[in-house]
Amino acid sequence: MADENEIRQALGIDDEADILAAVTGLHTEIAQLKATLKDQDPPGKDENRTLKRELAESQMRYVQLETEKDRKIVELQSGLRVAQAEHRVDAAIQAGRVAPAQREMVLNIALRESEEDFAAFIKGLPSVDFTEHGGAGGGDYADYEPTPQEIAIAKQMGNWDESKPTESRLALMRAKAAAKGVTIPASKEA
User: Fold this and answer.
1) What's the angle, vertex CA 174, arms to CA 171 and CA 180, rounded to 5?
2) Of the four, 39, 50, 60, 183, which is 20 to 30 A from 76 by CA?
3) Rounded CA gap, 10 and 19, in Å?
4) CB neighbour list of residue 48: distance below 8 Å, 6 or more residues apart
5) Nearest CA to 127 among 104, 97, 168, 171?
6) Whether the Cβ atoms of residue 124 and residue 98 lie closer than 8 Å to each other
7) From CA 75, how far away is CA 68, in angstroms rounded?
8) Residue 187 confidence (pLDDT) above 60
9) Which of 78, 124, 84, 77 is nearest to 107 (CA)?
10) What pTM was estimated for this model as a whole?
11) Which pLDDT band holds residue 161 (cuts at 50, 70, 90)?
């Protein structure tokens, strides 16, 4: 009977209680607890949801910050590229290789081409001799006098006749004036 006493003691019942009824009662109580637990969320489930949501929000914020950083890097690189191209064009203008009036056009070329290709392009342009500049006088047409760079470009493009420099200069003046809506009469000579 020692085994029966140990069973009663383990079940928490006295000598007169029915062991089978106690075991059945325990099974019923276990079934009720299982049903109750089944309807409840497991421990820590709310905390898990909160942590998962916070992790997803953190990941989205990280992606946003990375995208913003990449956009700023591209923006800064683009600005640097433009500044470097402007510097190369301004140096070409200072060296007498490009007319100031052609700055925008040459800047577009500098932005489009590699630094080496642009340097080769500028090197191929003729240098302008500032002593070659004629004078239109103090008249109304002085503003249309071609610059040394414009004359060099006209020579390079084949629009300058070395045997007729006065007529070539006058043709350039007329073209400049026409671009500004002014007509230089054919009989007017500078």
Assistant:
1) 150
2) 60
3) 11
4) none
5) 97
6) no
7) 10
8) no
9) 84
10) 0.42
11) confident
Length of the chain: 190
Task: Tell me which residue of 112, 136, 121, 126 sits closest to 157, measured CA to CA.
Answer: 126
| C-alpha span between 133 and 138 (Å, rounded) | 15
Q: Using CA atoms, how far apart are residues 38 and 54, in angstroms rounded to an integer?
A: 27
Share of the chain above pLDDT 70, in %: 87
**Cα 86 to Cα 122: distance, rounded to the nearest angstrom:** 14
130: which residues sit within 8 A by CB, 6+ positions away? 96, 148
Token output for 121? 């392009």
User: Per-residue pLDDT tens for 53-88?
Assistant: 999 999 999 999 999 999 999 999 999 999 999 999
Tokens of 107: 């800047």
Could you please report the per-residue DSSP string of 102-137? Answer: GHHHHHHHHHHS-HHHHHHHHHHSPPP-GGG----T
In the numeric block, the tokens 């020579």 are attached to 155
Chain center to CA of 139: 50
